[in-house]
Amino acid sequence: MGDPHPRQEGPADLRLVAPALAAWATAAWALDASGARVTWVVVASLLAALGAPLVQRATRARTGTRPGGARRPWGAWSAVPLAAVLLCVAAAGTSAGLRAADVRRGPVPELARQYAEATAEVRLTSDPRLTRPGVRGDHATPRAVLLNGEVTRLTRADDTVLATRTPVLVIVDLARRGATGGPGDAAEPAGRSPWLALLPSTRVRVTARLVPPLTGGERIAAVLRVRGGRPPEVVGEPSGAQRWAGRLRAGLREATEGLAPDARALLPGLVVGDTSRVTPELDDAFKRTDLAHLLAVSGGNFTILLALFIGPAGLAQRAERRGLAPRLGLPLRGTALLGGALTLGFVVVCRPDPSVLRAAVCGAVALLALATGRRRSLIPALATAVLLLVLYDPWLARSYGFLLSVLATGALLTLAPRWSAALRRRRVPPRPAEALAAAAAAQALCAPVVAVLSARVSLVAVPCNLLAEFAVAPATVLGFAALTAAPLAMPLAGMLAWWAGWPAGWIAGIARTGASLPGGAVDWPGSWTGALLLAAVTAVVVLLGRRLIGHPWLTGLCALLLVLAVVRPPPLTRVITGWPPPGWRYAMCDVGQGDATVLAAGEGTAVVVDAGPDPVLVDRCLTGLGITRIPLLVLTHFHADHVAGLSGVLRGRSVGAIETTGFEEPPDQAASVRAQAAARHIPMTRAEAGERRRTGGLDWRVLWPPPDPAPSPDGPNDASVALSVRSAGLTLLLLGDLEPLAQQALLSSPEGAALGPVDILKVAHHGSAYQDPELIRRVTPRLALISCGKDNPYGHPSPTTVTALQKEGALVLRTDRGGAIAVTGGNGRLAVARD
Questions:
Q1: Tens digit of pLDDT for each residue in 336-379?
Q2: SS3 791
Q3: Which of 76, 674, 743, 823 is 20 to 30 A from residue 274's alpha carbon, by CA?
Q4: Where are its TM segments located (predicted)?
Q5: Are 783 and 810 in contact (CB under 8 A)?
């Protein structure tokens, strides 16, 4: 079994790094390069590689061996590494060029260029997944099911049948459509779509419109757009292996059914990459804290299982003595064979998509490194994994996930050991030193790439990863145990899942807490120039950190300043920034193209009117205002630009009740509001004209909509809740999105007839041109507030509306120019502050 004490080894072996990087770069370039250019590069590389030994011989013959065995000149000893690089360039160019050419030719790309309709038989190669909900204007974009697959049979419009094997992306639109083909009034419930029950390797027949991919060099030849009004037509059942894997995954979902919502959503994702239960809010929290790698199957999951089986990686021949395999008396070769079987099972259960294959290959190479018993073979193992993966799947060369995996692994193998040793020399205990060094090293190398993807830099990534790290292993191991036990004994699986739910819930709590911190992330240029700038800043921070760590008091002061910058306690923020202004009465949040108004009702307390389209933006606004308690949340109507941010309002705040209009259109948004209220046990009431309320120093009455029986509104906008609010002698009129007909009806209604001049007007419908001139003349506001998004496609606010308001003497302020607005004053005195 080898010496229990590993021998001292020389410096890391870097000979495979250059060939791997050369193959990576060549594959990325060749995917959308012309065939002629790829051929030229491949041939030139091969000729140069074959010529390298000739150059070496000629150099040796010319220089000979120097006295005393001195080292030969550069040309003599660099020929072999150069030839290796050139051969890898040729291999990567050949692989990428041939694979890309296969995707670009054939009937499927041809029909896609014509935007033709066809009937196709598709063999699925991935699990179905739902798109994230979005907001377009005042409507939520319909959700769709995405499936990767391979077209095996294609029937053209002229009934010509063609056999092929072409990778495609299938998009199933879940919005129901009427006979005219326009959007209907409802959409199929996304979570109950039969398309989501399909397993990989299932063959389905679809009638779809073929469209080309958005960009060149993708791994798919076309996008198949399918209307999802009907269930899928299955023409071939999934393979036995995928049915087995599907039963295991379904068993894990059943075992986690009784867990808390976040643990119930996270555990299947952490174990097998099943993110079907992860809400958009939870997903965003993991992204904002740089914990998103825990939601996807990665080498980390597999490493934990291997460490349990063979012992901690990287300890050479001593490693196998500390895992399950040596305790069972398995020899090293048997350990490697069973580790390979574990790798195969991992791929099948977690699905053989690129991220899983990437993790499995890294694990297989780690087994090879273990068998050699050499610690210094870990970096060559990583280089080998990169080389094999880009040759097998050239599209990984353009994958950000692949880049992040390689950077993180490289950081753990190179930077982390040195940083850990430096921390231990400064009397940091070994375990905390290793954890801190690993998290900091991975963040240092990965942060520039993450900034390109998200246009922000997380300031809480390292502490969040540190706090989550110790919970990942127990959650993963117990989750896999529950996965294995589910087909045999569901009660046992449920108990194991319950135990795993505790660390999983802890991880989710860390993500949500970190994401809720107002200074947890800073905006950053989302470009490669921004990435280079961040890399330079990181290098400076590391150099300064090396000097600071020897001065405990100075280090503590810097840490305290960083904590204050991240937490941003409202009293301190108010002193430094002046926001929110003391004694503010009303505030209009900058939530993009939507509405969210805050009415102060005491220290940390406010009535909120509408939630905007973005949970993150409205949560950030309320946090900046110091709002922790909301006695009443008024949702004027159910358009997405007023209610889609509801989860951000509810996050970390107590909400007494939600009041809405009685016109529940669109139905999907109304159902979403009711579901979120029910999940948090928040009562819902219906607003009716004549209702009067008071809380703190705030008085308001409902002006619209009228009570039943009332004429049916023309749409959700005309059913908006309109409010007249008074605080400290200042009057505010909020009109929701009322349009001219409803505004005229309001003026002639019993509640609206008494309307007179107001101090502040929240202009209806983001300042659109659809305003009743008589209403503007009647209320003659001193200040007109318009909430709209910068460069919105609707031209809001309309110049005619702005001009009409200014003619009545109003000062017009808009959130797209200057951000959030706060109004202060009282008893006729009016002042404005901007965030």
A1: 677 767 777 777 777 766 666 666 665 555 555 545 555 566 78
A2: coil
A3: 674
A4: 37-55, 76-98, 291-316, 328-349, 355-371, 378-396, 402-423, 435-455, 467-489, 496-515, 527-544, 551-567
A5: yes
